[in-house]
Design a protein that fits this description.
Blueprint: E1 2-6, H1 16-26, E2 31-33, E3 38-41, E4 54-62, H2 65-79, E5 90-94, H3 99-115, H4 120-130, E6 133-136, H5 142-154, E7 162-169, H6 182-192, E8 196-197, E9 200-201, E10 206-207, E11 217-223, H7 226-234, E12 241-249, E13 257-260, E14 270-284, E15 290-295, E16 301-306, H8 313-317, E17 325-333, E18 336-346, E19 351-354, E20 366-367, E21 374-375, E22 382-383, E23 387-390, E24 398-401
Parallel strand pairs: 3-12, 13-14, 16-18
Antiparallel strand pairs: 1-4, 1-5, 2-4, 3-4, 5-6, 7-11, 7-12, 8-11, 9-10, 14-15, 14-17, 15-16, 17-18, 18-24, 19-23, 20-21, 21-22
Helix pairs in contact: 3-5, 4-5, 6-7
Length: about 425
């Protein structure tokens, strides 16, 4: 059977992936684990998420399904942070003889859960209509992610995937500062990039794969295959690890992005690719956020933002001018598109006036008097007017990304881009 679980954590602690790692070991008492566990990130703009909006799925071969159901349900009741208002766990169980029947409908549900907004009522109605074994706790919102994770497990060939090696702390360490050798993360990055990414942020000299909340995760290494993330994890020097798990994930895939044909169709709590022209020059607001406007072919406009956490990425954004053609990727909240990546497709020319150069000596001429043009005193040459020169923009067309310290889980890093038709920035 396939088991989908979601919403067991809180902003203060616990982690649904930790419960998944625990069950990977415990369920071997009842059968065999048949595949790598899945970590599925859902719509990143949902306001009632806890932290990373992730669900997990496990696949187990067992002769005692009822005992598996009882054990999993018991562990969710025991470990979930039920005291948190936002924590509303859900678990679903898909039996093997239902795989083919449920495969297409749950794949569709997965895509909707990653790209759109789903109400709890819809998940519960679907469970009832399809006869799926489930249990929701409190308002049962976790049933949404649990169903989506099962959809991913049922359709492994239909979505792009990456991997993450998650190491977990010993329980007595939870809530205390993590003891890690920061330099070892930079060493691991040097050894395994671009097979791994978002381990560190080189430009800002930050370790980004170590969380700061009170959850059980010690660190998480993301990459292209299980071998490379495991290699990187083996290079980390840190406090003792209680357990670890390698998850197959949809992280770093851009699975959340919808193609926006026009600004008119853009809605809050959704993520898009949007092509348009810069219509208002970037301005820096209090707090360091950089805002500018983009216009589509129909003349509609939307504000776009590089918020302060994007750090050096804002230097790039400040170089944009009206007339530049761009393709933006990002999520929309309160009518503003929060940029994750930007492809600069073409640059508008910026021209300035200068006094003409003397064709004889090459020096700039001086004004010969009001309405009399320009003259080189040395050579006696004359010109009637100033000349226009195109200014060097100090900017190139290409695809740029926010730094790792500001990257969202689902955003596809340039390390994974295989495009040959465009330059990728920043170079490492």
């Amino acid at each position: 059977m396939i088991i989908g679980i979601d919403d067991t954590d809180s902003n203060e602690g616990m982690c649904t992936t930790y419960l998944g790692a625990l069950l990977l070991e415990e369920l071997q008492e009842y059968g065999n684990i048949e595949a790598l566990p899945l970590l599925v990130r859902l719509n990143p703009t949902i306001p009632y998420k806890t932290r990373g909006n992730a669900a997990v799925a496990l696949k187990v071969k067992t002769d005692c399904p009822e005992r598996v159901i009882a054990h999993v349900t018991s562990r969710i009741e025991e470990l979930s942070r039920m005291e948190c208002e936002k924590t509303n766990p859900g678990v679903v169980f898909i039996r093997e003889n239902d795989y083919e029947r449920l495969k297409p409908v749950l794949m569709s549900f997965l895509e909707e859960a990653v790209k759109d907004v789903i109400e709890i009522k819809k998940a519960k109605e679907l469970i009832s209509e399809l006869g799926i074994i489930s249990k929701g706790f409190k308002n049962g919102r976790g049933l949404i992610g649990a169903l989506a994770a099962c959809g991913a497990m049922l359709n492994p060939e239909k979505w792009d995937f990456t991997f993450e090696h998650l190491a977990y702390r010993q329980k007595e360490k939870w809530g205390t500062p993590r003891e890690v050798d920061k330099e070892s993360f930079f060493e691991a990055d040097r050894e395994t990039y671009p097979g791994t990414w978002d381990t560190v942020d080189l430009k800002n000299r930050l370790v980004v794969c170590v969380p700061h909340s009170g959850d059980p995760v010690l660190f998480g290494i993301r990459g292209e295959n299980p071998e490379i993330v495991t290699k990187a994890a083996s290079l980390i020097r840190a406090e003792p690890v209680e357990r670890f798990a390698v998850y197959r994930t949809n992280q770093g895939t851009d699975m959340h992005l919808l193609q926006a044909r026009s600004i008119a169709e853009i809605r809050d709590m959704h993520s898009y690719r949007l092509e348009g022209t810069i219509s208002a020059a970037p301005k820096t607001l209090e707090g360091g956020h950089v805002i500018f406007a983009v216009r589509d072919r129909q003349g509609a406009e939307i504000d776009c933002a590089a918020f302060e956490p994007t750090k050096n990425f804002r230097l790039l954004i400040r170089k944009l001018v009206p007339g530049d053609r761009v393709l933006l990727s990002g999520s929309v909240t309160s009518g503003t598109l929060n940029i994750e990546k930007i492809e600069i497709k073409s640059l508008a020319p910026i021209c300035r006036e200068e006094n003409p150069e003397c064709p004889e000596c090459g020096k700039h001429m001086k004004s010969a008097g009001k309405g009399q043009g320009f003259r080189c005193k040395k050579c006696g040459t004359h010109s009637l007017s100033k000349v226009m020169f195109e200014t060097d923009r100090n900017l190139e067309t290409g695809l740029y990304e926010v730094p790792p310290c500001a990257r969202r889980h689902l955003a596809k890093p340039l390390a994974r881009e295989k495009r040959r038709d465009i330059r990728l920035y920043p170079a490492r």
